[in-house]
């Protein structure tokens, strides 16, 4: 179902060179399963696909249907792991050009940044539309989604009065956090995130599933994808043929040869946010203790006309992993014209998909010739079940790769630094002294 193709990377690593990395990766995989590695209190995601209960799935679908029936827009509020998974899947599978109505609402996102203009325009836009909210925060205390919810809850109350609470579904911790207290006080329907599942591994919980259901997607297909690949990955003890173990080994080998940046590339713009999700997964899991591969992303062929120059001829610190679906949902054939004014008649009878595939192969050859090893992650198509398998593949590989690096792939201590400074500069109670010190530093006296 998921295949790791290495034909454009094989000249960069010999079997003998990869061997110790494969062996470390298999040890890391076993550590994951024996639950005696770092961060072992956050391994709930590992067997989650087998644990999702039918009644919980049904409740998600029913509750989403309830919002869909009364909404032209559903706003999903969340950031990081409480945002990127659902956004990635929705962007990948929904039509590019969508028509929306009550009963088939559009999905908008908020709470993933702090730009004032966005919120100003969002409030203006929602003023005359029937809307509902799914607010997601595991901790229930993250500032960005809390601010977005404060603004949109205010609008909801103004529009619907005592009916506002019925238009909110909250996804949060089972017992703690400000969002949980808010939900209890106002009587929102709630879904919970298991304690042992961290944000960036939570796409298969209501964090990811509710927004998909709100968009009217068959979430069981997505769950099926996870279930379908789980045993293949768990049971394959051969680190060469297990694509997740091999991917983890290759990444760490490339890192050991000075390739400190991995580019996740695609030739399908609908996969742009899959890369965003992947960047968070690997960036937060591995980038710590002065270690880790920097996860970057590019959308081809668009970026071949910008960053492609660097990839081809810049500093040789890169390797590339290309998301490669084997088939297209739809295609167009190029016709001939009598005048051939654009000189494209040589393409007559070819599909755009065929042209894109030749661009893909040509790019991989060129990048490999230019000194950039290229891996391909091959999956059948851009459907919910294939994406479910792809997401689990990356989660599993990321945990293994993090253990190979020797870090805890399940914490993110570095995220606190900017928050502390922001709270200090905003004079949050308890941070006043730090605020004064920071202002002094900023002003330079
Ligand atoms: O992966 C993570 O744990 C983080 O990216 C969180 O998902 C993100 O910080 C949002 O946190 P929360 O869901 O608690 O609001």
What does this structure look like?
The protein has 445 residues and is α/β, with parallel strands linked by helices. The protein is built from 16 helices and 10 strands. It has helices at residues 15-34, 48-51, 54-70, 84-93, 116-127, 143-160, 178-186, 206-214, 219-235, 243-256, 272-286, 308-313, 352-369, 384-405, 416-425, 432-443; strands spanning 3-5, 73-77, 106-110, 131-137, 168-172, 189-192, 261-266, 294-299, 318-325, 374-379. The mean pLDDT is 96. Bound molecules: 5-phosphoarabinonic acid (PA5). The site of 5-phosphoarabinonic acid has 14 residues, from loops. It catalyses: alpha-D-glucose 6-phosphate = beta-D-fructose 6-phosphate. This is Glucose-6-phosphate isomerase. Belongs to the GPI family. Pathway: Carbohydrate degradation; glycolysis; D-glyceraldehyde 3-phosphate and glycerone phosphate from D-glucose: step 2/4; Carbohydrate biosynthesis; gluconeogenesis.
Features:
single chain; 445 residues; alpha/beta; Rossmann fold; 2 domains; 5-stranded mixed β-sheet; 5-stranded parallel β-sheet; 10 strands; globular; binds 5-phosphoarabinonic acid; glycolysis; SIS_dom_sf; monosaccharide binding
Short structural summary:
The chain has helices at 15-34, 48-51, 54-70, 84-93, 116-127, 143-160, 178-186, 206-214, 219-235, 243-256, 272-286, 308-313, 352-369, 384-405, 416-425, 432-443; strands at 3-5, 73-77, 106-110, 131-137, 168-172, 189-192, 261-266, 294-299, 318-325, 374-379. With 445 residues, it is an alpha/beta fold.
SSE layout and pairings?
Blueprint: E1 3-5, H1 15-34, H2 48-51, H3 54-70, E2 73-77, H4 84-93, E3 106-110, H5 116-127, E4 131-137, H6 143-160, E5 168-172, H7 178-186, E6 189-192, H8 206-214, H9 219-235, H10 243-256, E7 261-266, H11 272-286, E8 294-299, H12 308-313, E9 318-325, H13 352-369, E10 374-379, H14 384-405, H15 416-425, H16 432-443
Parallel strand pairs: 2-3, 2-4, 4-5, 5-6, 7-8, 7-9, 9-10
Antiparallel strand pairs: 1-10
The protein binds 5-phosphoarabinonic acid.
């Amino acid at each position: 179902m998921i295949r790791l193709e290495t034909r454009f990377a094989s000249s960069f690593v010999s079997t003998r060179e990869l061997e110790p990395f494969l062996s470390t990766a298999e040890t890391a995989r076993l550590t994951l399963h024996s639950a005696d590695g770092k961060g072992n209190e956050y391994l709930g995601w590992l067997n989650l696909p087998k644990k999702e209960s039918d009644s919980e799935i049904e409740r998600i679908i029913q509750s989403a249907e309830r919002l869909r029936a009364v909404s032209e827009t559903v706003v999903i509020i969340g950031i990081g792991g409480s945002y990127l998974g659902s956004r990635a899947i929705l962007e990948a599978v929904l039509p590019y050009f969508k028509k929306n109505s009550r009963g088939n609402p559009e999905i908008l996102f908020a709470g993933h940044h702090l730009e004032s203009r966005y919120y100003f325009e969002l409030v203006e836009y929602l003023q005359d539309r029937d809307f509902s909210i799914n607010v997601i925060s595991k901790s229930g205390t993250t500032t960005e989604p809390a601010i977005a919810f404060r603004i949109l809850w205010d609008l909801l109350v103004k529009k619907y009065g005592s009916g506002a609470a019925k238009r909110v579904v909250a996804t949060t911790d089972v017992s703690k956090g400000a969002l949980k207290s808010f939900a209890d006080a106002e009587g929102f329907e709630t879904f919970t995130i298991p304690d042992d599942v961290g944000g960036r591994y939570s796409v298969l919980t209501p964090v990811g599933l509710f927004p998909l259901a709100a968009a009217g997607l068959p979430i069981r297909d997505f769950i099926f994808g996870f279930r379908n690949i789980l045993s293949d990955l768990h049971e394959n003890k051969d680190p060469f043929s297990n694509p997740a173990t091999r991917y983890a080994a290759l990444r760490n080998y490339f890192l050991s040869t000075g390739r400190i940046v991995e580019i996740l590339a695609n030739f399908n713009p609908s996969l742009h946010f899959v890369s965003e999700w992947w960047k968070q997964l690997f960036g937060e899991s591995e980038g710590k203790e002065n270690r880790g591969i920097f996860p970057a992303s590019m959308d081809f062929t668009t970026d071949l006309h910008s960053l492609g120059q660097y990839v081809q001829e810049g500093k040789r610190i890169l390797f590339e992993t290309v998301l490669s679906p084997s088939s297209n949902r739809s295609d167009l054939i190029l016709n001939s014209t009598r005048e051939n004014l654009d000189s494209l008649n040589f393409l007559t009878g070819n599909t755009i998909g065929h042209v894109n595939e030749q661009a893909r192969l040509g790019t991989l050859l060129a990048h490999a010739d230019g000194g950039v090893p290229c891996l391909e992650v091959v999956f059948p198509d851009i459907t919910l079940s294939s994406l479910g398998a792809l997401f689990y593949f990356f989660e599993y590989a990321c945990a293994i790769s993090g253990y190979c690096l020797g870090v805890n792939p399940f914490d993110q201590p570095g995220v606190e630094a900017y928050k502390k400074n922001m709270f200090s500069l905003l004079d949050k109670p308890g941070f006043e002294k730090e605020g004064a010190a920071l202002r002094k530093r900023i002003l330079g006296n």
